[in-house]
Design a protein that fits this description.
alpha/beta; 5-stranded mixed β-sheet; about 625 residues; 6-stranded mixed β-sheet; single chain
């Protein structure tokens, strides 16, 4: 929830989605509509729920979308467990289904026999206020009349949805609400574009920046005035900079207002030639473009190579005019493993490969073999493995993870590569080598299973290709803990916190941003301990901006006993006495650590949410003339 300065009205009602454990679209014979995710209570409270609990408790989010899948036998939109969790977090907003996921309650999951029963169980037990579909429309009234749910249940849902509308001021006179005064002139302003570019620059991650064997210094930043070859299927990207579900970006509905990396790089290098060749397609096989790309690279002093994945539909606007004119294998359809769909990202479809698609490895290998200083940038949403490029034995490139950086992403990328900005972010997830996806089933949602998944649980002997939190800079930072000095002690019986000051010093040659990350790791816990606890867990982070060379800044973290809470086998969040290692890191090698002792008795800080006992069903009401029964509604659907 965001409230504008000086206004009584809420500016934005944020809807969190998809609640919860919605980590599969289509894999191994299951889809998001049919999969039943089986995970422990411990993993719900430790891994799956925190991303929803924090914005509800700390930011007052006013919307939640329940997901298609079931969790432990209960469809998410009809789950009293999910409802109890939201209530325990103090949720004061509305719950909407994903597009007619209420229908999945009976059609896909077979949890109920009819649309009427599904409507009432979603409304009463799942707390789903809005059905983003037609199941409530056709069947809820007959459910009320049959006594499966009541008008009081309907009133509660209406109250939840209208409360949000009242907070937004949608029923008040427009003259008194400043947000009604916003119009077309407030869209795409210079200030908003600058903010967009700033955010994009801060999200780019510098994965590696080796020394150039030709020039003797780091490959990045680039120096203007050198001949540059910009190559690869994403070199001239516009649409591919933007996540596929984004609405209109340019006034025309196209992408002509978006500056590609190629155009932005050429603009910043006006006194030397900037050549371009695509080299290969994102997904389609074929090396007919290699010769032109290699010729451009041979003539250049520096090569910038744009590789990565793609989201379904991103080919249509530019190459085939309309999405439906694109080849079938480029549409988002459940066709895993065939015609390149194993690499495509899109709604209702999962990639089965995290490798670079098509001919991209081959193109990169041919370019790197020329032994020219090379920069590789990646466009993708989910992880993409570039192990061959990162570990190239002769000519390792500088590598930048750009994700889908948005409409200003090309400009932000060019600014970063030429050193006009030095903002850089950190990796928001771990990246495995390409063969990892071949040996780990996407049906397995237990991140503790086997060798474990994510930085919290991974115990494999093979290092992660890129760990969570990693990210470099054009300058060098050091970290030191200031206060408090001496031993650190907290108590499970006290809300008193330690105010930890961390000194960040820029000991490198240029100004830059840095992100200080705070982690804890249990070292030894008093009996009975907490089985299966995370190896390491992030509990805070702070960005320091524009820190000059030779300057220091102090970042203060508040560390209390609740910051060290762990989830036990029952799903209770507990304060477990023992010793913990607390570290402050920058993801680039700087670490400052201290041991903290948590004293006292074991305390349950937050018990696993328990669903309330279901209220007695309303007495069956007489059917009115023209009432729709559940059976006839099913036939019409």
């Amino acid at each position: 929830m965001a409230r504008g300065a000086g206004s009584q009205y809420t500016l934005v009602a944020v809807t969190l989605k998809h609640f919860d454990a919605n980590s599969l679209e289509d894999s191994d014979g299951f889809t998001r509509h049919t999969v039943d995710v089986n995970v422990s209570r411990q993993l719900l409270t430790d891994y799956y729920w925190p991303a929803f609990r924090a914005p509800i408790r700390e930011a007052g989010a006013l919307g939640v979308m329940c997901s298609y899948n079931a969790v432990n036998g209960l469809p998410a939109c009809a789950s009293p467990v999910m409802k109890a969790a939201r209530e325990a977090w103090g949720f004061q907003g509305y719950v909407t289904s994903d597009t007619d996921s209420v229908a999945d309650v009976w059609r896909a999951h077979r949890y109920k026999r009819t649309a009427e029963e599904a409507s009432c169980v979603a409304l009463r037990e799942g707390g789903t206020d809005v059905d983003s579909g037609n199941t409530y429309y056709h069947s809820l009234l007959s459910g009320v009349r049959s006594g499966r749910c009541s008008i009081s249940d309907v009133d509660r849902a209406l109250f939840n949805t209208f409360r949000v509308r009242f907070k937004l001021g949608l029923f008040d006179p427009k003259a008194g609400n400043p947000y009604w005064q916003l119009g077309e002139a407030d869209i795409g302003t210079a200030a908003s574009r600058a903010l967009n570019r700033h955010a994009a620059a801060a999200s780019l991650v510098l994965l590696q920046n080796p020394t150039s064997r030709r020039d003797g210094g780091p490959i990045l930043p680039l120096a203007p005035g050198k001949r540059i070859a910009v190559l690869g299927p994403h070199a001239n990207a516009t649409r591919a900079l933007i996540q596929v579900d984004t609405g209109k970006v340019c006034a025309s509905g196209g992408f002509e207002c978006v500056t590609s990396p190629l155009a932005a790089l050429a603009d910043r290098n006006p006194d030397a030639g900037t050549a371009y060749a695509e080299g290969c397609d994102v997904i389609l096989m074929g090396r007919q473009g290699f010769s032109a790309a290699l010729a451009a690279a041979e003539a250049a002093e520096v090569v910038v190579l744009g590789l990565g994945g793609t989201s379904c539909g991103s080919w249509g606007a530019g190459r085939w005019g309309k999405r439906d004119n694109a080849p079938r294998h480029l549409h988002c359809r459940p066709a895993n493993g065939t015609n390149g769909m194993q690499w495509a990202e899109g709604e209702a479809h999962d990639r089965t490969s995290i490798d670079l698609p098509g001919e991209q490895h081959a193109l990169a290998a041919a370019v790197l073999a020329l032994n020219k200083p090379t920069v590789l940038f990646l466009l993708n949403g989910g992880m993409v493995s570039v192990a061959e490029e990162l570990r190239h034995a002769i000519n390792p490139p500088a590598v930048v993870e750009a994700f889908y950086p948005g409409a200003e992403g090309g400009e932000a990328l060019a600014d970063a590569l030429f050193g006009r900005t030095n903002r850089w972010g950190k990796m928001p997830y771990s990246v495995y080598t390409a063969d990892w996806a071949k040996t780990n089933s996407m049906l397995d949602h237990d991140v503790q299973h086997g060798l474990g998944r994510t930085y919290r649980y991974y115990r494999g002997s093979v290092p992660l290709l890129t760990p969570f939190g990693h990210g470099l800079s054009y300058t060098t930072f050091e970290l030191a803990i200031g206060e408090p000095r001496g031993g650190w002690t907290l108590s499970t019986a006290s809300a008193t916190a330690l105010h930890v000051s961390v000194v960040l010093t820029n000991v490198g040659p240029r100004e830059g941003d840095e992100v200080v990350q705070a982690y804890f790791a249990p070292l030894s816990l008093a009996a009975p301990g907490v089985p299966n606890h995370p190896i390491k867990a992030l509990w805070g982070f702070e960005r320091v901006s524009d820190l000059g060379s030779g300057e220091s800044a102090t970042v203060t973290f508040s560390l209390g006993a609740r910051d060290l809470q762990l989830s036990d086998l029952n799903g209770d969040l507990v304060l477990a006495p023992g010793k913990y290692n607390v570290t402050f890191e920058n993801g680039a090698g700087a670490v400052a650590a201290r041991t903290v002792t948590l004293t006292g008795e074991r305390v349950v800080a937050e018990p696993f949410p328990q669903p309330a006992a279901p209220a007695p069903q309303a007495r069956r009401a007489p059917a009115a003339s023209g009432a729709t029964s559940g059976t006839s509604a099913q036939r019409r659907e």
